[in-house]
Task: structure prediction
Amino acid sequence: MALHRLVLLLRPLRSLSPRHFSSPTSLRTMTKETTPPPTTSSSTVPIAHHPPSLPASPAAKRSKPNTTTTMAIPQSLPPLQVKKLTESGRAPTRGSAFAAGYDMYSAKDTVIPAKGKALVDTGIAIAVPEGTYGRIAPRSGLASKHFIDTGAGVIDADYRGEVKVLLFNFSDVDFTVKEGDRVAQLVLERIYTPEVVVVEELEESVRGAGGFGSTGN
Result:
């Protein structure tokens, strides 16, 4: 009975080829092939919970640089105030948008004698803006055609009397100014009135005291 069991145990070994026992490596290979892989329990594997993904933000658009040239807006200037003293007095006017001066008008007929002078009434009083003064300038037409020039043309900001124009006649004949004629120009100019300081010496300059044609013809 014991011999019969030994035969039954040795019978499966006959089916194995000697190559299966040729080396320890073969034995390990056989053992690896016949050994089932270990099973893992799903309960031991941690499950990672990721937050829901947010939609990607759209790519920011690059703003184009502002290439538009902006013009500086000039500040509003204080007005030139005019008061009419007579019915024939007229407010000064400008001949064009870029005219530097305001045309001044005669309030009555006036004769300018030959080689002489006379004051021409304008029939108005003015108040120039603070920081400026009014300069009476000649009109080119009177000077070139009739030899008429102006003089003594400074109007201070605090002067409130009638504006009169001093005309000189350099021709050999009398010249008559009619009521309503343009006799001069009023130009407003900015002024700078610093404090007056008396000093012992003045700062030297390249020109020095040279004057009256010292710089050449």
Q: What stands out?
A: Residues 81-190 form a domain with the Deoxyuridine 5'-Triphosphate Nucleotidohydrolase; Chain A fold (CATH 2.70.40.10).
